[in-house]
């Protein structure tokens, strides 16, 4: 399947409509992979939940602690991707997390988005290492990280409170030295994407 043109742009407060519509519809697709949070899904993902989340993410971004982006496909809102918990000084490390609308999966969207954001984080963002933790059952996400060039480093036991319980997570990582010409350029070289 050909996904379309994948791009990243900053999050906006006016994303509330798209964000909420997709997340309310996609509860079954998303909830089992996301951190446990108080309150029903419908409340946490309603239209008026977004401005609060947007403000929090924008505040972290302004302090250099987070790089939050919307994933677009052919200009339309298709998901979110975030580099978070940015630590500077001699660590220069962060985690990456993402989700893609159920109507846009299976075409390489998440892989392209990961490649674009990792390249940005290692260049303009000045980071050296990016980590991704994923449940062993989440085969599509493991495939995304493997295709993008992440290495599996180990298993964190009972690592994160996800979907109501402490879940084991595989740890994947990549450092700047491993990206060669860049992850996006590698996807193109390997025939998984093309420049437009
Ligand atoms: N078993 C094995 N592989 C699978 C399965 C499956 N059940 N379903 C899909 N895949 C493969 C696809 O075939 C594809 O691989 P291929 O290109 O070799 O054919 C790969 O998984 C998916 O790659 P993309 O198309 O780049 O990814 P997509 O745009 O479909 O998004 C994502 C994947 C983000 C995991 C999406 O399914 C999603 O949003 N899931 C719910 C939220 C989520 O799990 N987020 C990630 C949490 S972990 C983290 O953020 C580090």
From TrEMBL:
Signal peptide: none annotated. PROSITE patterns: GNAT. One of its GO terms (cellular component) is cytoplasm. One of its GO terms (molecular function) is protein-N-terminal-alanine acetyltransferase activity. Residues 20-177 form the N-acetyltransferase domain. InterPro entries: Acyl_CoA_acyltransferase, GNAT_dom, N-acetyltransferase. Keywords: Acyltransferase, Transferase. It comes from Amycolatopsis alkalitolerans. Belongs to the acetyltransferase family. RimJ subfamily. The keyword Transferase applies. Gene3D superfamilies: 3.40.630.30. The keyword Electron transport does not apply. This is GNAT family N-acetyltransferase.
